[in-house]
Amino acid sequence: MAHPDLTSHHVNYLIWRYLQESGHGEAAIQLQRAWNHDPQSLPFAPYIKTHALVSLVQKGLQYYELEHSIDREGNATSFTPSSYFFGPAPLEQETSKVQHGPGEVAVGTDQAPVSPASKVVAREGGDSVTNGHLTAEAAAAAQPTPTNVKKTRKSDRSEANGDEGPMEVDSNGVTHPEVKAAAAVENLPFTAEVTVDGDGDVSMVGIRPELQDQEPPAPPPPPPPPTFTLTTGHSVGVQITPAKAADLGPDTALLEVAGADHVTRTLWRPNDPTVVVAAGDSFCTLWRLSSTAPPVQEKLIENNGDRTCVSAVSWEPNGHKLAVATYNDMRGSITMYDVFGNAVDLLPEVPRMITGLHWADSGSKLIVVASDSRISELALWDDSLRPDEFPSPQVIDGTVLDLCWLGSSQVYACGPGTVYQCDVDSSVHISKTFASSNPERVWSFIRCASVGSSPVAVAASSASAALWVPTHDLHLENAHEGEITAIEIKPNREQSSDAQNLFVASSSTDDTVKVWQINLESKHFDCIHQLSLGPSSPALAASFSPDSYALAAASKDNLFIWNAQRGGTPMAAWKAPASEERKRNHEPSGLVNGHNGTTEPAPDRSLAWDTDGKRLAFGFGNQLAIVNLQR
Question: Localized where (predicted)?
Answer without folding.
Answer: Nucleus
